[in-house]
Amino acid sequence: MPDAMTHAFVLLPGAGSDSWYWHRVVPLLRERGHEVVPVDLPYTDPGADQYTYADVVVSAGRDVARPPTLVAQSMSAFTAAIAAERMPVDGLILVAPMIPAPGESPGQWWSAVGQAEAKRAQDVAEGRDPDAPLDPRGLFFHDVPADVVDEAFAHEQPGMSEAAFEPAWRAPRWPDVPVRVIAGRHDRLFPLPLIERLARERLGVEPEVIDSGHLPALARPAELASLLLRE
């Protein structure tokens, strides 16, 4: 049955992904009567940058009947912050996010926040080799059901243009809208202590923790949908 109060959501994929990332969450929101628009961002276009991506989000927002909540996975937290300066929104929900600071670019973020050091510390603490070659299955899909992993690797993913990591976010401060952060307890890319620190320092909020890795929309879609709706 639809919820008594319905909402609109615009869902942004993370780097190197597309709207397919949200395919397990979208029906859970729609069956409750909510408007949902998952977007594809032009990650492969060498002439498109974060401000171009924000234009796509603003355009998608015109397809819903009310100011939407922007739900941004990982790097698209940058895109959502820019879009929220350009359109009316009900709020932002940043999932496993690269939480930006004004004046920072996605390319600068990694070293600015100490991501490599945080990841190495967690790898050592959990018994993984911090110097092992990158294994996307182990890093991103370790808690995703096997059939969904197979589907993900069969699904053609967009390549990433270098422009995706530019430019710096040209803003003096965060937009004056509500912001929530959802962090994965078992995120191997952005360890929970890192996201907790950034949420507190950059947004003044405590993250809500989901029992997943970096891809909760694939690993825990029902739990993520409930968190989006605060059920």
Automatic annotation (TrEMBL):
InterPro entries: AB_hydrolase_1 (IPR000073), AB_hydrolase_fold (IPR029058), Sec-Metab_Biosynth_Hydrolase (IPR052897). Residues 9-226 form the AB hydrolase-1 domain. This is AB hydrolase-1 domain-containing protein. It comes from Rhodococcus aetherivorans.
